[in-house]
Amino acid sequence: MVATEPTFEDLFRSAEHSAFHLEMRDAYALDDDYQEWAAGNRFDPAERWPWWIDLVSASVARGVTVRRARIVSEPISAYVRYEYDLTSGHNVKAGEDVRWLPRRQTSGLALPGNDFWLFDGTSVLFNHFAGDGTMTGEELVTDPAVVYLCASAFAAVWQRATAHEEYRPV
Predict the structure, then answer these.
(1) Which fold has domain 8-163?
(2) Alpha carbon of 137 to those of 16, 112, 114, 116, 125: distances in Å?
(3) What's this model's pTM, rounded to 2 decimal places?
(4) In what order do the strands lie in the sheet with 123-129?
(5) Which are the contacts of 157, defined by CB distance < 8 A and separation ≥ 6?
(6) How far apart are CA 97 and CA 86, in angstroms?
(7) What phi and psi values does residue 124 have, to the nearest 5 degrees?
(8) What are the extents of the domains in the chain?
């Protein structure tokens, strides 16, 4: 029998203490949801993506701390404006604690080359993207040195970043 890698949802549902996400791109795939928002059609993200609200809120209810840090260039891109506009009704509503860090404040930080999720300080799920922001795959890593790099990077970003409620995008 061939062992299969756990899925993102498996990792999230099995987290016991923490699930931390670091985002470092100024744009991701410009999908239909983004295109609709860009056209001026505002929607309730909680209605659009109830699975996320359910996944995160269930994790938070069982004591998992869920944090998301976004490193952004300023002035922010249209895509980051989209993320910012949806954060309160999507990420925060689900139970995430979200912070923003202007890229110019990261020059002294050692950051991994890819966005990632860090689960319980023991495993890292890297997200790989093409130049156009389309996700091309994921890579699960449990090597302690890589986990340490990502945990240290996330902690450094988190310490410098501004809470979503206080961040005013430029």
Answers:
(1) Endonuclease; Chain A (3.30.870)
(2) 25, 16, 11, 12, 10
(3) 0.95
(4) 135-141, 123-129, 115-119, 18-23, 65-72, 97-102, 162-163
(5) 22, 69, 71, 99, 101, 106, 109, 111
(6) 14
(7) -120, 130
(8) 8-163
SS3 of 118-159: EECCCEEEEEEECCCCCEEEEEEECCHHHHHHHHHHHHHHHH
| Strands 123-129 and 135-141, sheet pairing | antiparallel
pLDDT in tens, 133-159: 999 999 999 999 999 999 999 999 999
3-state secondary structure the chain: CCCCCCCHHHHHHHCCCEEEEEECCCCCCCCHHHHHHHCCCCCCHHHHCHHHHHHHHHHHHCCCEEEEEEEECCCCCHHHHHHHHHHHHHHHHHCCEEEEEEHHHCCCCCCCCCEEEEECCCEEEEEEECCCCCEEEEEEECCHHHHHHHHHHHHHHHHHCEECCCCCCC
Rounded to an integer, what distance in angstroms lies between the CA atom of residue 94 and that of residue 164? Answer: 14
The 10s digit of each residue's pLDDT in 50-83 is 999 999 999 999 999 999 999 999 999 999 999 9
Position 100, amino acid: W
The first and second tokens of residue 116, run together, are 């990632």
- CA-based radius of gyration for the chain: 16
